[in-house]
Amino acid sequence: MFFLRINLQAFAGEKTEKATPKKRKKAREEGQVLQSREINSALILLFTFYVMRLMGSYYYRNITVFTKNIFLGMKNSENLFTANEIHKLFILTVILLGKMVVPIVGTAFVVGLICSYMQVGILFTTKSLFPKFSRINPINGFKKFFSLKPLIEFFKSLVKLSAVGYITFSYVMKQSKNMINILDMDILQIVGYLGNITVNIGLRAAIVLIILAILDYYYQKWEYEKDLRMSKQEIKEEYKQTEGDPQVRSKIKEKQRQMSMSRMMQDVPKADVIITNPTHYAVAIRYDSKLEDAPVVLAKGKDLIAQKIKEVAKENNVIIIENKMLARGIYFAVDIGDYIPPDLYQAVAEVLAYVYRIKNIY
Length: 362
Known about the structure:
Blueprint (H helix, E strand, L loop, with lengths): L14 E3 L3 H9 L7 H18 L1 H20 L7 H38 L17 H8 L2 H32 L7 H42 L1 E2 H12 L2 H22 L5 E4 L4 E6 L9 E7 L1 H12 L3 E4 L1 H10 L11 H17 L1
Parallel strand pairs: 3-6
Antiparallel strand pairs: 1-2, 3-4, 4-5
Helix pairs in contact: 2-4, 2-7, 3-4, 3-7, 6-7
């Protein structure tokens, strides 16, 4: 008979668990965030060409003025190639390029900034600037070379190139009948006509690229989550480190204390009587013969907590009785939620009897 031995430790290192908040925070601090650059590129392309369409008349007007200035300068052929004329031509060219380029560059910058903020938020980190030796490790590089990631990136580039090529080809073919009219156009009309074709192709390509970018975003999200996955052992180690942190333990205890205090104060209105020191101790007692075999302590406190118990009691018309010895005895001998011990039955019974008489009077 053959026995199959399975080493369960081999599965301990498999990254099958979702990343913890601590792991996600650390990854973000190191610059490892979920972001699709395809979305940035596609939206920048869309808005850039859209701005070009909106400002078509603006571009046409500036090109017209520039061309007129060039031809006016050419009328005086004697001074055409002088240093002064060349300088003027250079200045006019720089001004034209500025007027043409600034709106496009400004649009691309603003859209890119907004896209990055929508995906990543505000993130300042210098850790990604420092070199990681694991990145230049030849073994890791060899693994990446034979991984699926380069193939996927190549496939994405091929799809984008094919989509843009098809859009360009199909649109140019539709306009081919009208292109013969270029022969009857002047230079400015040709520039405007070709510019309009370019913008229309750009807008159509941008819309298709946005659809591809959305698909890429979900792929990047899957890849990001896969890279952040943790093994069960890593989660255990992180838990040990977190629980071992004195500050974390202190915060947990403080949170537990606040929750316990809140629950205790909610029970004060249910009490039959508050027995006080009167300034240092306060104990809330309830006795329901149908539910309990003996009086039970609903809340207790010292100093500020005692004052808070009395304030809540007054707000809810719970009777407050001063009995120094009994208040101290119950405070030190009985925990919250426990019954009064037999040796205090007589004293507590007398207080409850007094309270019931007062309630019957009123």
